[in-house]
Fold this protein.
Amino acid sequence: MDWALRKYPMYYGGVKQVHPNIKPGMPFFSKSAAAGNLLFLSGSAGRTLETGDVPSGIFEEQMLVALNKIKLALEEAGSSLDNLVKTFILLSDQRNYHRLWKTLLEYYQEQASLLVEEPPVSTVIQVASLAKSHYLIEIEAVAVVKKDEPGWEVKKYPLYCGGVKQVYPNIKPGMPFLSESVAVGNLLFVSGMTGEMPESGKVPSDVLEEQIAVAHSKVRTAMEKAGSSLSNVIKTFHFLTRMDLPSIEVKDQQAGYSPATARMWKAELEYFEKHAPFLLDEPPASTCMQVPFIGNSDPACLVGMDVIGVISRDRPGWEMKKNLLYYGNRGFPRHLGDIKMYYANSVSVGNLVFFSGEAPKSPYTNRVETDAFEEQMYLVLDKLRLSMEGAGTSMNNLIKTVMMLKNLEDYPRMRRIELEYYQKYAPLLIDEPPASTFILPRSLATPKFLIEIDAIGVIPRSTHKETPTY
């Protein structure tokens, strides 16, 4: 398998978006990063390439700017819009949900007609804010460079609701049309699944644990249809719409988890114990946040999840390896009462490595020890660097980040510290930074977190090192 790393620079107004061309504190990122035949794009908002400004406050016009930028980025990398396999769409206002799908349908009909019948998988969430308050939409995308590349075969599995295939003209314009899952080689991308029943689109109850079981059942069904199983999940991105849920008993109240996340981990663990016991010893990498809405879900919906899996754990060239997480030499998994904190530090598939969201918890105590933003961010970056080294790579091979903040006013400090850190520990990223997306959720996994970073990297060789014990 060819896992060669290539990055394509971002330009606004003819200026390459790296230092020293732009000031410290400004966003710097690559337009896209390719690992072999897989292409990861930065989040695309309604800023025009010519000026870097948002020319309109109209949702559809901002979305068309974002889609045109995605199309150009794909073509620059030798791909095309037809090669999209996944989109992750961020809305600043959930009321634009149906306008999103109507605009997307019209755009695909004109620019990429194959996607009308065989759309990518997709996850849509509302965020508290995008990078600028007047941004209305941002779209992150994953594509293949070539559909016919040996070993990277693409296969899409349609989504059915109530027996109806969820594509136009079966559904009305303005309704979501997406694939249930898309396989790329041995990777399997699954559309975002919520706690709503697939037959009715309604949540079965207002109990978080019951909704989590529904969402996992939908993921399990999707993976089995693609010839895989729930045991082959390698990465989960959890979205909760409420953090103020009644708590459950835990021993360590200072570990920095909200009642909702503690209940989520416990419910997920219990589902895995019943349906995918392999994941108890080799759990997926995981990231969690709170958002106002997931898609256009029922307001009673409490949970959603975006999932990546593999078809096979030992396919040649795509072998899977999980690097487990250790805190303070206490072993794995970490226990909070009867809750196992069971997510993996990272999971590699072939030479691609997916990391759990790096949060500002001390690796020695598993607690948030400081409320200073700079200290939290340096800790997060230190943990990411050590995680990459533990996976057999280095920070210079970082290809994709999702930067998550609690407070929007910390954005310039976040980018300034990121630059300073790369200058010291990953100098190759100064001129060739990773592709990047920014998210301001309603809250991170706990209100104590001020920063969290989700990341993807490349392992440039076939050897793998063990994860270091803190």
Remarks:
- The CA atoms of residues 196 and 202 lie 5 Å apart.
- The chain has one domain: 11-458.
- The first helix runs from residue 59 to 76.
